[in-house]
Amino acid sequence: MSRSFSTAVPDQLELPDAPAPGSHGPSGPPIGSKHPSTRRIWRRVWTTAVILLIIAVFLLPYEWMFISGLKTQAAIFDDIKPLSWKTFVPLETTFENVRELFMDRGVGRALLNSAFVAAFQVVCSLVLCTTAAYALTRIKFRGRGVIFAIILATFMLPAEALVVPLYQLISTMNLQDTLVSVGLPWIASAFGLFLLRQSFESVPVELDEAAKIDGAGHFRVFWSVILPVVRVDLITFILMIFLFSWNAFLWPLVVIQSQENTLVQVAVAQSVSPGALPNWGLTFAGASVATAPLIILFLFLQRLFLPGLARTGLK
Amino acid sequence: MTTMTSRGVSRGSRKRSRGDALAAAAFLAPFLILLVIFQFGPVAILIRDSFYSYSLANPDIAKFVGWGNFTRLFNDPIAMQSIGVTLLFAVGMVALVIPLAFLMAIYLNQNLPARGFLRTAVFLPVVTSSVVVATLWNFLLANQGLVNAIVQSLGFQPVSFLTDASTALPSIIIMSVWQQLGMATILYLGGLQSLPGDVMEASLLDGAGPVKRLLLVVVPLLSRTTVMVVVVTTVFALQSFTPAYVMTQGAPEGTTNLFVYQIYKSAFTLQQPGYASAMSIVLLLGAITVSLVQMRLLRTRWDY
User: Fold this and answer.
1) Is residue A233 predicted with pLDDT exceeding 50?
2) Cβ within 8 Å, pair B109-A20
């Protein structure tokens, strides 16, 4: 019951490493082939090669980024040419880059700003989307379908196309260059509502009815019946909103001008693009710091991320 | 007696439905109000602004120009090149993501050692911000970067990936494929795991070899998933901004001047928000068209 996403959706996106039930991939050596042992060896070589290729393409760049953040500019260039194992190992580890980021470049402040915006966005959209999802799944009223269709229509609007008018709107509200203005336009999230509606619908109506017979009003049903049942999906929801908020770039770039309100993604981007010679070690360290919170969350809570991310595909 | 009861019931249910309507309004209002202000409001402003010429510094001095911004757009070689570049970017991404994600999903659907680990690796770029991805690749592809170090250790001349007009866009396409492959792979994995087992067994009994089975049975059965992957990838490409901002500033020769970057420059650097609004409308219509085509192709029930 608590994993209502997986009951709502047939595909098991969070398959464990154990053999997939009903996996249809080419499996096992063909029975009665002439040289089973040679075939098996080739198979193993091929599998290992592909695994190494995937690791090299997808993980090595991250490793290089994290490690190079712990090197001086000179060491990065010395170690990369000629290419050797040194490229990927910090022989003389220095935390000078990290120190400079936090002491001189205000990255600590930027991280706090990003965290504040993300928290604001998560809390507000949690309140707004859960209540709206309750109304759209649990209360029968005229025009429900129309309202849901109108909300879903906003799915089709790319945020990037609305940045110019949004900036003017925020300016007329006199909110430009505030942290609240970074999150405010996105807290009524159609995607979040879509995610929660699916999850709410998987809660059996009998539960509400039992509570209503006991005299519970809508708020009681919402608070003490529905929310506890869908709590795991709420974590997926929170992770999704956090991910979108933390990684957002164009809107924060546009709406924030002052240095003290800069978000971490904008700070990283601006340390790369302008200026003649970027400091590689410093930028790598900044990029590592900016991405570390999400990577850590993802590594530990992957199973809760995947159902949500798979649904961004439906957007 | 019967009439009494039925009247009593109907009055009760009317009372309840009025209570329900009030509760629904209370539960929905905050969401709807913000949605109207921050989604529909901007669309309305966008449409109005696209008919005016003004500056962000002084928005009160606006001149009505009718369709002027649009005719200007379709006669502006830079903007048209930007649209072309963005479409090329989208087509390139789709052409690479579909086969790669499909193969990756087939591969990860087997009983592999460390399958979960590999899936995590492929998925990591999806949860990494576009800024960090662009920053990382900026250094991977730089003249003294990691990729050129590999190229040189193999005995080739270094390549100016991001500053040569013939390699800049392909480089950004490859980076974006790297970034989005995990998403498409997860969609295909979901599709593969929902394939009906009996169809697969029947095709095995028919004696279809693995390649034939893949092409004639699996690919057609996954066409819904493929439509979804195409749409997700296209929408991602149409909205891409960060590579141009962080890595190339649209150079060399405008070959990486993605449309959203062009909108950003027009509005905030060149101070022509009216013109940028007209471009935004073109982007909006493009994205809506893609979504409508998807709904048509999938004959969507809203909840899949």
Assistant:
1) yes
2) yes
Pairwise CB contact (< 8 Å): B132 & A265: yes
Q: Which residue has the higher pLDDT, B110 or A170?
A: A170
Task: Indicate if A160 and A61 belong to the same structural domain.
Answer: no
Say if residue A88 is in the same domain as residue A63.
yes
> Which parts of chain B sit beneath pLDDT 50?
1-9, 301-304
Q: How far is CA A74 from CA A71, A96, A270, A279, in A?
A: 8, 13, 22, 10
Read off the CATH number of the domain in which A131 is found: 1.10.3720.10
ipTM for the whole complex: 0.88
Is cis: bond before B210, omega within 30 of 0? Answer: no
**In terms of CATH, what superfamily is B71-298?**
MetI-like (1.10.3720.10)
Together in a domain, A131 and A200: yes
Give the structural domain span for A236: 115-312
Closest by Cβ to B153, choosing from A83, A128, A160: A83
Enumerate residues 6+ apart whose C-beta is below 8 A from B117: none
Asked if A188 and B302 come within 8 Å (Cβ–Cβ), the reply is no
What residues of A are in contact with residue B241 (Cβ under 8 Å)? 160, 249-250
Do A98 and A144 share a domain, yes or no? no
Say if A183 falls within a structural domain. yes
Which of left, alpha, beta for A261 (phi over 0: left; psi -120 to 50: alpha)? alpha
Span of A23-32, A223-232, B83-92, B229-238 with lowest mean pLDDT = A23-32
Q: Is B139 in Cβ contact with A284 (below 8 Å)?
A: yes
Q: Are residues A100 and A121 in the same domain?
A: no
For residue B251, report the phi and psi dihedrals to the nearest 5 degrees: -75, 175
Residues 6+ apart with CB under 8 A from A204: none
pLDDT value at residue B91:
96
Q: Which of A2-16, A186-200, B87-101, B247-261 has the highest average model confidence (pLDDT)?
A: B87-101
- Quick one: pLDDT at residue A21? 42
Q: Shortest CB distance from A249 goes to which of B118, B242, B303? A: B242
A211 lies within 8 A of chain B by CB: no
pLDDT > 70? residue A4? no
Residues of chain B in contact with residue A294, where contact means CB-CB under 8 angstroms, are: 127-129
Q: What is the band of A140 on the pLDDT scale with cuts at 50, 70, 90?
A: confident
Q: Dig out the tokens for B89 from the structure.
A: 């970017």
What are the chain A neighbours of B132 within 8 Å (beta carbons)? 265, 268, 287, 290-291
Contact (CB<8Å) B28/A135: yes
